[in-house]
Amino acid sequence: MKDKVVHESSQSDENNNEGFNRSSTSAIPPFNIPDVKSFDKESRSTQLVFSYQGGKKVPKLREPRNLYAFSKDKGQQSSPRWPSQMKILPTRPKHIHYLPRNPEPFVKPEKTSDDLNLTKLPCEDGKVVFNNEPGPEKYFLRSRVGGSQISNKPFYKLTSPDDCTLLFESRFECGNLLRAIKVNDNEYQLWLRNDLYTNKHTQWYYFRVQNTRPAVKYKFTIMNLLKSGSLYNEGMRPLLYSEIDAATKKIGWVRSAENIKYYKNAIKREDTTKDKCHYSLTWTCDFPNIDDTYYFAHCYPYTYSDLQEYLQNLRNDPVRSRICKQRVLCRTLAGNFVYTLTVTNPSRRPADAEAKQGVVLTARVHPGETNSSWMMKGLLDYLTSNAPDAKLLRDTFVFKIVPMLNPDGVIVGNYRVRWLAEI
């Protein structure tokens, strides 16, 4: 006997939380009383449907749900959910896609006499010009769309048009600057926020800088990094993004900094009883444009909203949507969607479909590894293209893809974990 499945759906997010495929029991024959106890236990799961084969009740997994509240005309499928206490700006940064014409060179640091004067301790008489404490909660309690939204006004209020203090911001997706301390007009010490509800995992950074002055050499020092070694000592440079350059020259993220040093400082770590210290990353740079908005990042940012916009474009493409099916695998602790994609060419016969081998691909289990999202995007672009090898791959395999395993960690700017602090 075939299962009769009734599909229930709703466009509201609340109703979709309750929507599921319900197996009809009207045509199911009665079964023996001894089976009632086991049936009751099995029926507690909403992921099982039952059929009868040869007089025996046979459970099987329910088919995956369709996307919740999906609309081609209403933008992204689900707004990011944050811890309810986190202060978040109402608008998020958007960056253009940009590929440099030539490979960007490594600039390996050289030892100089200035190495003896590297900053090893916090500046005690500096001025706090940005502070973004996530709140007193030690554990995740509840989430809400947009977090606790605030205005676009900067943390620090300029005292006059001549006030040259830099304006910092990171209260947006993937941002994680905790504090900025002004040492002098041209030097700032920066502190990164620990992964939420932990006291460690500081290596990723992404923040905004405004009120810069041309022809001024600025110095930045991140004070609380954890890793003992870094590619910054092998020639890698911080990423810089200019909104004016993006709008007028179509130039996006570029590697740009000088006097880069990554070194051990004298600040004791709080996450261990051992005698261990933090590490610092320092660099200098200038900002050539007037009234520009700049961003710094450890690697090319790729947010949860970026992923949803990309998936929406896939869904709206009449060709690629036939070979790439999107489902919601589950919801996260905060209620954000974890998407799963199935990429393959439709088979003419069931036997052809069963003969295909499966390939499982995942990305972004660690939120700070944004490069994995860009690799996943490139993979999906290729697998859903008209390239002959892509067609051959789709004819041969069924690709099951989870493009972002840890959206909660990605949204808040964590480096390694989600909100339960597992490794």
UniProtKB/TrEMBL annotation:
A GO molecular-function annotation: metallocarboxypeptidase activity
Compositional bias ranges of the Polar residues kind: 8-27
Co-factor requirement: Zn(2+)
Domain Peptidase M14: 300-423
Keywords assigned: Carboxypeptidase, Hydrolase, Protease
Signal peptide annotation: none
SUPFAM superfamilies: Zn-dependent exopeptidases
Keyword Magnesium: no
Keyword Protease attributed: yes
UniProt region (Disordered), positions on chain: 1-38
Family according to the record: Belongs to the peptidase M14 family.
Name the UniProt record assigns to this protein: Cytosolic carboxypeptidase 2
